[in-house]
Amino acid sequence: MSPPPALEVEGVAFAYPDGQQALYGVSLRIERGERVALLGPNGAGKTSLVLQLNGVLLPGAGRVAVAGLPVAAEHLKEIRRRVGIVFQDPDDQLFMPTVAEDVAFGPANLGLRGPELETRVKGALAAVGMEGHADRPPHHLSFGQRRRVAVATVLAMEPEILVLDEPSSNMDPASRRELAEILGGLDITILMVTHDLPYALQLCPRALVMNGGAIAADGPTAELLADGDLLAANRLELPFGFDSAALRR
Amino acid sequence: MGTGHTHRLYLPGTSPLHRARPQCKVAASLLFILAVVATPREAVWAFGVYALGLAALARVAGLPLPTLARRLALELPFLLFAVFLPLVGQGERVEVLGVALSTEGLWAAWNIVAKGTLGVATSVILAATTPVPELLRGLERLRLPAAFTTVAAFMVRYADVIVDEVRRMRIARISRGYDPRWIWQARAVAASAGTLFIRSYERGERVYLAMVSRGYSGAMPVLQDLAATRGQWLAALAVPAAAALVAASAWVVRP
Q1: In chain A, how many domains are there?
Q2: Which residue from B minimizes the CA distance to A86?
Q3: Which of residues 116-135 of B touch A (CB under 8 A)?
Q4: pLDDT in tens, B51-74
């Protein structure tokens, strides 16, 4: 039997307690090692879907499984280890007094201590090129550095899948490129939620388009971005100066 | 953002004072201040000994005395109160530069100025040799409830973020021609304060979400073993012990 997919979402529907329906039967499957972009306009339900993946929100119908383990109350701890979410604002994610302690927070909650914990922290910081800043307070770092540390805090938990919420937002072009190089070099399954279509094209061979709480398209990123009608129908636009015809290969 | 006012008090170094365990430093500082406060105010020499002792410690820690002296300015508003005591005090009076001052009031003022200054100087040295996160860990080791130290740690972490938000909101108000001159124009500032509260509250929710997503289950993990050895405790407590000795002798030889 082949190993279970890194992420499997089947017919997930969800409404917020105030009655607002956010997801109408979302299904998707991400294989181990894939890098997938989740595209969609504001209000498409992208964040609601992301919060289903680690059980912060639980679906009204349907099921989510991470590497074969269903998301359910009884093994939330293991699910939260398997799904590493990097939130949009690094200031929300980095709350400990120093970078090293922040990276250690997740694995320490999993029960790691001593040299094992230290190895994890060092490895995660090295993976994002921040090993020289371990003892600095997060608020002394630049925005780009803070986002990289936020990625490290999640990598330290050795997740099955890395979920990034708008990783390129508020970044200057150089930090944006540096982060792309780091993410591109990681040997890990990635789901990247973004509006930044060129970034999705650069990093993710496959893309999902979400609109109105459902998946509207699923395919190779270059093909989806070359389909002007599809983009227009889902309120997605390439930045000025991009020629969608040039993407067709 | 970036500069971080929370660490401005800390002056990096590698002196024995910098390397001492934070819980030892906190306990020693507190006990030292207690000894100072317990000293009779008439024993002027004792306060001189304390001041020399603190200066020696600052010297060992490699702290520049002018910087420390400037930081003492913190207590000035409190000292203003002491200035009035000799003027309004009761009892015997002495003539100083043509003003009749109460002797009792002068002693009371001296008492406040001397003990206050020594207390502030002790905290200034503690803050200059201990980074804030370590200070919090020291307090934790001294069995301060985790709820307090955790809240304090979050406060330190997010003070800059919130101050920055306040600054941006102020700039946004000014950019739209806001120029408050009268009290009823304070409405916009009040509204901003409300917005800031809501935003900080929402940030709290997002931070909690991020914590839960990384396996937080109600207790902050203890990451470092900061236990102090007997030797470290003895070295740190030698300072307040010496101060206690001075205080005791001051009582004995009291005129």
Answers
A1: 1
A2: B210
A3: 132-133
A4: 999 999 999 999 998 988 899 988
Which residues does B67 contact at the CB level (< 8 Å), separation at least 6?
B11, B128
Residue B116 forms part of a structural domain: yes
Say what the pLDDT of residue A84 is.
Answer: 94
Pick among A71, A103, A139 to test the B interface (most B CBs inside 10 A): A139
CB atoms within 10 A of CB A140: 18
B227: exposed, middle or buried (C-beta count within 10 Å: 0-12, 13-18, 19+)?
A: exposed
Residue A95 in contact with partner chain B when CB distance is under 8 A: yes
Please report whether residue A17 resides in a domain: no
Q: Is residue A136 part of a domain?
A: yes
Residue A43 has pLDDT above 70, yes or no: yes
Provide the number of CB pairs (under 8 Å) joining chain A to chain B.
88
Least confident among A112-116, B91-95, B129-133: B91-95
Q: Are residues B92 and B184 in the same domain?
A: no
Q: For residue B167, how far is the Cα from the chain centroid? A: 25
The interface predicted TM-score (ipTM) is: 0.83
The residue written with tokens 């120029």 in the block is B179
Residues B128 and B153 in one domain: no
Comparing B220 with A233, the larger pLDDT belongs to: A233
Examine the pLDDT at A102 and tell me if it is beyond 60. Answer: yes
Report if residue B219 sits inside a domain.
Answer: no
B96 and B132 inside one domain: yes
Least confident of B84-93, B111-120, B203-212: B84-93
Same domain membership, residue B122 and residue B32: yes
pLDDT for residue A249? 53
Q: Is A48 on the interface with B (CB under 8 A)?
A: no
Containing domain of residue B46, as a range? 5-139+227-252
Q: Tell me whether B2 touches chain A (CB under 8 Å).
A: yes
pTM higher than the cut 0.95: no
Q: Touching check for A73 and chain B: CB below 8 Å?
A: no
* Angle between helical axes of A114-127 and A143-155 (0-180°, round to 10): 130
Number of Cβ atoms within 10 Å of the Cβ of A37: 26
